[in-house]
Design a protein that fits this description.
Blueprint lengths: L3 H10 L6 H18 L14 E2 L12 E2 L1 H12 L6 E2 L3 E8 L2 E11 L8 E10 L5 E13 L11 E5 L20 E5 L8 E5 L4 E3 L6 E9 L9 E12 L1
Parallel strand pairs: 1-2
Antiparallel strand pairs: 3-6, 4-5, 5-13, 6-12, 7-10, 7-11, 7-13, 8-9, 8-12
């Protein structure tokens, strides 16, 4: 295809002696050629424009060509999509955001603790979430949780509550007595068991979970419980986890 300059040079060759109809035809052809070489305001498609490419994977990696809106969106969507997310337990819902291997998981909890016998030290836990298979790094965590008694026996109890990959169990008044019971977020002293929220954020407790390690997330509590305990104390609130799948 001739360049615009060449076409314009051809135009100059025609003078007033050229028959009018021949001149007009030549100019019309010239205009068509020029219009095909430039981008016009009224253009609605780039299909015939060689400098515009439609590549969802941007494979040509050109420094001189443009890409279509569709290919840009397809490329961004493909690279922002999350890899495999985890699994929530009954009584918990999750909202997952992030990009590829980086996740922010917001858990909304509305559940109950296992039965607390009372009158003695005891630690119990509730499964909230399970990370997907593979090596995991938990970068930071936030807990905004409340414990509400159901029988009026443990109102004034101030249990130790935290997040860990191991369920708390046994005759323990502190979560530190169970390995892994607070390795995501160290136990905090709750003010009571009548619904007061305990809020804690940690960003200096990075946890690496190897592929063969425990991938579970438990809300754990421990205390020297008041007599009679509680058969089904309610737990409610949110847990936020920022983590990566390696």
């Amino acid at each position: 295809m001739a360049t615009i300059k060449e076409l314009l040079d051809q135009k100059i060759l025609y003078d007033v002696d050229v028959a009018s109809d021949e001149y007009d035809a030549t100019i019309a052809a010239l205009a068509t050629e020029i219009e095909s070489e430039i981008v016009l305001e009224e253009d609605t498609s780039t299909a015939d424009m060689d400098f515009v490419v439609d590549e969802d994977d941007m494979v040509s990696d050109s420094a001189t060509k443009l890409c279509t809106q569709q290919s840009i969106k397809a490329y961004v969507d493909a690279h922002k999509a999350l890899t495999t997310s985890g699994t929530v337990n009954t009584g918990t819902t999750a909202v997952e955001t992030g990009a590829q291997s980086f996740h922010k998981t917001v858990l909304t909890v509305s559940s109950t603790l296992p039965a607390i016998a009372g009158g003695a030290s005891l630690s119990v836990g509730k499964l909230l979430y399970t990370f997907p298979a593979g090596a995991i790094v938990v970068h930071c965590a936030r807990m905004s949780m409340a414990i509400t008694q159901s029988q009026g026996n443990i109102n004034a109890d101030t249990p130790d509550g935290g997040l860990g990959t191991t369920i708390a169990a046994g005759a323990n008044a502190l979560l530190s007595d169970t390995s892994g019971a607070e390795n995501i977020l160290t136990g905090q002293t709750f003010n009571n068991c009548t619904g007061t929220v305990e809020l804690k954020t940690v960003a200096d407790q990075v946890l690496v979970i190897e592929a063969a390690g425990d991938h579970t997330v438990y809300f754990n509590v421990a205390d020297g419980w008041a007599a009679s305990g509680d058969a089904a104390a309610a737990i409610a609130g949110t847990v936020v986890l920022e983590w990566s799948l390696l």
